[in-house]
Amino acid sequence: MAGGMVPMVGAGKQYAGRLTQYVVFACIVAASSGIIFGYDLGVSGGVTSMDDFLSKFFPSVYRNEKAADESAEGSDNYCRYNDQILQLFTSSLYLAGLCATFFASYSTRNWGRRPTIIIGGVSFLLGSILNGAAQDIAMLIIGRILLGIGVGFANQAAPLYISEMAPANYRGGLNICFQSATTIGILGANLINYFTGKIDRWGWRLSLGLAAVPAFTLTLGALFLPETPNSLMERGQLAKGRKNLERIRGVKNVDMEYEDLVEASRISNAVQHPFRNLLLRKHRPQLVMAIFIPMFQQLTGNNAITFYAPVLFKSIGFGDNAALYSAVIVGSVKVLGTWLSLVTVDRWGRKILFYEGGIQMILCQVTSHLKP
């Protein structure tokens, strides 16, 4: 089409518009919340393998680790890290994120996607500062809880924000930007842990505190983001919603998409009990897939391996540097896989990537259990 415009398909229709720089900027800022989540996911396993961190906050784990290293064969690697306070440190982020999700659901719908992202960014920033400056377990746990609240708010609003801002024919690729940012955050954390692990006494502070950099970037960038047209229309701000739609599409002729969004918001607002309606028989296929896809993805152990990668490598006999370096390799493979998905998702479709990923994981699981 003339002027660099491309057709955008929605429910069998072609919408006028193009992928504007404004949309790219907005999606990059929103996706940066994935960097913070990935960073927190990758950094924790690294610092819990650092002797300076363990000796300060978890001395019993540090003693068990050293005793196991010095003992004869047959020592139990599990007992090295069997500490309830250490488990509280690692799990508090996810528990807080789970609880915060319910509040984020309300704020995303009633206040908008942008304010919810800002709340998540501020919480990320405060949690990073507390963790980097931690003097005792209490500061460490409170910082982790604040990070979890940031995960609950930002990670719920950001993917939705990207979906609503993106043109239909770029939606898959732009949505994967969030996952790509997550893997970049994991890789960044592993690289930083590798270098800070060589700094005596305060290297772990640098690892935990550097999460404040992307948190500040997200918070500052979110202040300049527009609200999505969908959110504005859901809350009755039709004129402002149309103005934002024209701005993000780069054209004035947005009548067709605008009318569809108005109709969609009318139908959405007419629903009296959205959560109860999810249990209706006609919604069962979507509900089942929405629950089981992320559930089985988690049950593969992918996030657990990512989180504990340095600890796992150290437990099987790798040295400190080798364990952190091996975690860097794992993070690099994640980034590569996500980038491949980024360039193929809108070309091949979502189901093909599900098939490929599932078959690949099955083959790797079978291969890893074969005896030499």
UniProtKB/TrEMBL annotation:
Transmembrane segments: 21-39, 85-104, 140-162, 174-196, 202-225, 323-345
InterPro entries, alphabetized: MFS_dom, MFS_STP/MST-like_plant, MFS_sugar_transport-like, MFS_trans_sf, STP/PLT_plant, Sugar/inositol_transpt, Sugar_transporter_CS
Top-level taxon of origin: Eukaryota
Ranges where the Major facilitator superfamily (MFS) profile domain occurs: 26-372
Family to which the UniProt record says this protein belongs: Belongs to the major facilitator superfamily. Sugar transporter (TC 2.A.1.1) family.
NCBIfam families: SP
Protein name: Major facilitator superfamily (MFS) profile domain-containing protein
Organism of origin: Marchantia polymorpha
